[in-house]
Design goal:
The chain is mainly α. It has helices at residues 10-16, 28-39, 42-56, 60-84, 91-98, 101-135, 157-170, 174-200, 215-226, 246-275, 286-293, 297-331, 350-366, 369-397, 412-426, 430-454, 456-465. One of its GO terms (molecular function) is amino acid transmembrane transporter activity.
Length: 466
């Protein structure tokens, strides 16, 4: 049993943070934009309308605030960890240092599913905006090529194409691709600001009545659903080894991106549900739909064009994050070594990048958006809860460890974080729990069949014993 819970020493991890195979190119501004790029995407451009129509009505703003509070607790935990142990791998690395290898493996396995599914769901949503953009020029793709088989089509071809295009971009290197990402994020922020300013002139307060048509239960259900919209700030902690001055810059990037995104979500939801009745918002391209409904077709066209560019930043962030998780697990021997190999010219783990991109492309082309969102939610909630547990353990085991950022009110806030995550998990559908359980069982088989034998910690122990 002890072997299952063997831990990486903090000294080992800090030594790893000096890893030279990944190039340090990211500053606080890059991280904040990477975080905003990952968070602001399908959540604000797609899920806002769907959740308002089906779960919470105008009270969807409370759903977003509830989700942001839960994320805020987790963000503080992430900020302390990222500033203390600036190593790629996010919660996978943190649980490896505090709880043990088998839990770390399952957390890494879960993160892979979260990042892959989120990226695929985002690509799926991007396709609707892309087609809406084309329709502005009097051209549209055949329905069979933008619709998944379950909804009567053949394939969501644009989703596949955009995922592969961004995979290629990331394979060119972090330094080059971050410039493109920063541009995409700034475009996205521009169109959201444009929507808020133009839409505000058409708000009718009567559309906010009834404000909470589905009651408190609807707000909580909506909170569990829109939690997906906040996934992304945690992806920053996967970039730790590519960050300049991570002790300072990582906490700034994590906390600032979450605060900015929460303000944006609330503003967009107030305008959206104020311009049209929440009952009309059950559409994937809600922002463009709202503006079309008040005759602002030109602005709607600009928003559709900006969304096409802006949502690409989310796909970028998640392919990047999933690749770094693969890299970290592979470097530790829990997955095949080939995934940890970096290209000499670009410093990028090329095989990992293309594997993540191809799998994500196939998922986005053939699987339903709502199913993807819920599966990503349950995995993210579990990993966020585990970060809270890990912070409490780290404070007990390493009280004098140098911390760039210190989370306040430990253990109260981490415990609240864990309980909040559990509360939202309980409100997810039973089918989501079933699919997620299957993924976890598969992860256990991978650990028992491969990871346990090939773990670098195991091989070091065997060398010592001999």
């Amino acid at each position: 049993m002890g072997k299952l819970f063997k831990k990486k020493s903090i000294e080992q991890l800090l030594e790893q943070s000096q890893n030279k195979s990944l190039v340090k190119t990211l500053g606080a501004f890059d991280l904040t934009l990477l975080g905003i790029g990952a968070v602001i995407g399908t959540g604000v451009l797609v899920l806002t309308g769907l959740v308002a129509a089906n779960d919470a009505g105008p009270a969807v703003i409370f759903s977003f605030i509830l989700a942001s509070i839960v994320c805020g607790f987790a963000a503080l935990c992430y900020a302390e960890f990222a500033s203390t142990i600036p190593v790629s791998g996010s919660v996978y690395t943190y649980t490896y240092a505090t709880i043990g290898e088998v839990v770390a493996h399952l957390m890494g396995w879960t993160l892979l599913s979260v990042y892959l599914l989120t990226m695929s769901a985002v690509a799926n949503g991007w396709s609707s905006y892309f087609n809406n953009f084309l329709e502005g020029f009097g051209f549209s793709l055949p329905k069979e090529l933008i619709t998944i088989p379950a909804n009567g089509g053949l394939v969501n071809l644009p989703a596949i194409c955009i995922t592969l295009l961004i995979t290629w971009l990331l394979s060119r290197g972090t330094k080059e691709s971050k410039k493109v990402n920063n541009f995409m994020v700034l475009v996205k922020l521009f169109i959201i600001l444009l929507f808020i300013i133009v839409g505000a002139f058409y708000v009718k307060p009567s559309n906010w009545t009834p404000f909470m048509p589905y009651g408190i239960e609807g707000v909580v259900t909506g909170g569990a659903a829109v939690f997906f919209a906040f996934l992304g700030f945690d992806a920053l902690s996967t970039s730790a080894e590519e960050v300049k001055n991570p002790q300072r810059n990582l906490p700034i990037g994590i906390i600032s991106s979450l605060v900015i995104c929460t303000i944006i979500y609330v503003a967009v939801c107030l305008v959206m549900t104020g311009v049209v009745s929440y009952k009309e918002l059950n559409v994937p391209e809600a922002m463009a739909y709202v503006l079309h409904s008040v005759g602002q077709n030109a602005v709607a066209g600009v928003i559709a064009a900006g969304a096409v560019i802006g949502i690409m930043a989310v796909i970028f962030a998640y392919i990047y994050a999933a690749t770094r998780i693969l890299f970290s697990m592979s470097r530790d021997g829990l997955l095949p070594k080939a995934f940890a190999k970096t290209n000499e010219k670009t410093g990028v783990p090329t095989l990992s990048t293309w594997l993540v991109g191809i799998i994500g492309a196939l998922i986005s082309g053939f699987i339903d958006l709502k199913e993807l969102a819920n599966l990503a939610n349950i995995g993210a909630l579990l990993t966020f809860g585990m970060v809270g547990v890990s912070i409490i353990i780290l404070r007990k085991t390493h009280p004098t460890l140098k911390r760039g950022f210190t989370m306040p009110f430990v253990p109260v806030l981490p415990i609240l974080s864990v309980l909040s995550c559990l509360f939202l998990m309980i409100n997810l559908p039973k089918t989501t729990w079933l699919y997620f359980s299957i993924w976890i069982v598969l992860g256990i088989f991978v650990y028992v069949g491969y990871s346990r034998k090939h773990s670098r910690l195991t091989s070091k122990e065997m060398k010592k014993a001999s």
